[in-house]
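Lecture notes, continued. The same structure-token format from the folding unit now serves as the input rather than the output. Read the line below as a description of shape only.
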């Protein structure tokens, strides 16, 4: 739930971000907010998504060989 503030005290919160492009750099800016609504200075996190693994068999397409008897 984007934008929701947790209702409990925690030293860490994690989330999953889906649909990111492979081999792409993303920058996130994060703030902490205390129970009075005061916001901290931002922290920046930069990540790079990995390149996808290529399955050589699928990349070449399926090949079938028919043997005659």
């Amino acid at each position: 739930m984007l934008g929701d503030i947790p209702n409990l005290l925690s030293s860490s919160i994690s989330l999953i971000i889906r649909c990111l492009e492979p081999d792409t750099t993303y920058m996130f800016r994060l703030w902490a907010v205390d129970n009075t609504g005061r916001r901290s200075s931002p922290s920046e996190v930069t990540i790079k998504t990995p390149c996808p693994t290529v399955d050589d068999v699928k990349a070449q397409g399926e090949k079938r060989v028919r043997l005659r008897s």
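Point for the exam: The chain has a mean pLDDT of 77.
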